């Protein structure tokens, strides 16, 4: 066993067929998990099984295949909801975090935001938790305001309190930054927002895959996440929402399945969550996400988190020895998710990523869809190594050697 107890990483790696491949003749060291994770065989099998045995549309057909597909899709919804402590009836399955924030922007925002209102988000957000609110604010004549950051990459809670005095309509915040790794106290943020009368949206794209999450105890109105970052397929994710709120909202997309009755001049809507699942949904990938949730649950999210805390601690310690290594965000691994963004002296991140790729190492380089944050950091781009259950200390050692090689080439 590798050093990263509590997980048996060797056994876990064997579940991921892609980790058997080589890149440029080297073992693939996949450290781009914040962008998307790899898929275990059970997830791949769930997709193949659906298409080979019971592919059918759902909620419509009374034939055997239709009933089996419907049961599997709804079972997946139940698993995903349970995984985040939400009721199944309050969980909308959709494409992912980006579609979820856009759903809120239209289905909630059109009715609830007026000229002169304030919307609040933060400087550390991914564009998918900024741009929808910008579009909404601009259309309605509302103001979008940003909570700034402290030097250590945490939120400036004093400034947040000040913004709450403006009685914002919406507070949208990430649970965990995809760049800094900062884990925000979203329960506290939502409690304060609720007292100020705001509706709350939490971006869980980087938290649900990496730590135990319970939306009830967070107390948010909406919680969004993406399946492909939690060992599931692309094209599927979820929005957990307070049922009464979802019920009070207008539909997002119109079409089949989301209606109760259609007349020539008006229609009535299906119950939540179906009201928000117009047209033929992504059946196969929802079932695949259910399989991913089963896989993660069998490991245990407490263990996943503990594993990543130890990896982050080891990585920060190990990489600090590389000349020119400059990490961003909190340095306490207990306050950080499974990502380390950094620069290596003034080596361009794309050059660095190219050199690392030659060593079989996959990292991300660029602005990480967080341009306001990059401006705050005063860098055009950064490199990012991000972890999941199949990474271990040996991957960090390979990354260190790769950075040293790049450092030698660029005379850092
Ligand atoms: N929020 C955060 C914090 C993210 O890291 C990402 C993905 N990089 C997203 C939102 C958007 O997720 P998706 O592209 O799956 O909609």
Descriptive notes:
The protein has 412 residues and is of the alpha/beta class. It has 2 domains: 131 residues, Alpha-Beta Complex (Aspartate Aminotransferase, domain 1); 253 residues, Type I PLP-dependent aspartate aminotransferase-like (Major domain) (Aspartate Aminotransferase, domain 2, 3-Layer(aba) Sandwich). 40% of the residues lie in helices and 16% in strands. It contains 14 helices and 17 strands. The chain has a 7-stranded mixed beta sheet with strand order 4-10-9-8-7-5-6, with helices on both faces. The chain has a 4-stranded antiparallel beta sheet with strand order 13-14-17-16, with helices on one face. Strands 1-2 form a two-stranded antiparallel sheet. The structure holds 4'-deoxy-4'-aminopyridoxal-5'-phosphate. 4'-deoxy-4'-aminopyridoxal-5'-phosphate binds next to helix 4. 4'-deoxy-4'-aminopyridoxal-5'-phosphate (PMP) binds next to helix 4.
Our estimate of the beta-strand percent is 15-25%
User: Number of helical segments?
Assistant: 14
Give the second-level CATH assignment, the architecture of the largest domain. Answer: 3-Layer(aba) Sandwich
Radius of gyration: 22 Å
Q: Please tell me the overall pLDDT.
A: 97
CATH class of the largest domain: Alpha Beta
Our measurement of the CA-to-CA distance between the termini, rounded to an integer number of angstroms, reads 35 Å
Associated small molecules: 4'-deoxy-4'-aminopyridoxal-5'-phosphate
pLDDT below 50 for ≥5 consecutive residues: which ranges? none
The number of distinct structural domains comes to 2
> SS-based structural class?
alpha/beta
Helical content stands at 25-40%
Q: What is the CATH superfamily of the largest domain? A: Type I PLP-dependent aspartate aminotransferase-like (Major domain)
Oligomer: single chain
Main sheet: strand order: 4-10-9-8-7-5-6
- CATH fold node name of the largest domain: Aspartate Aminotransferase, domain 2
Shape from CA axes? globular
Number of strands: 17
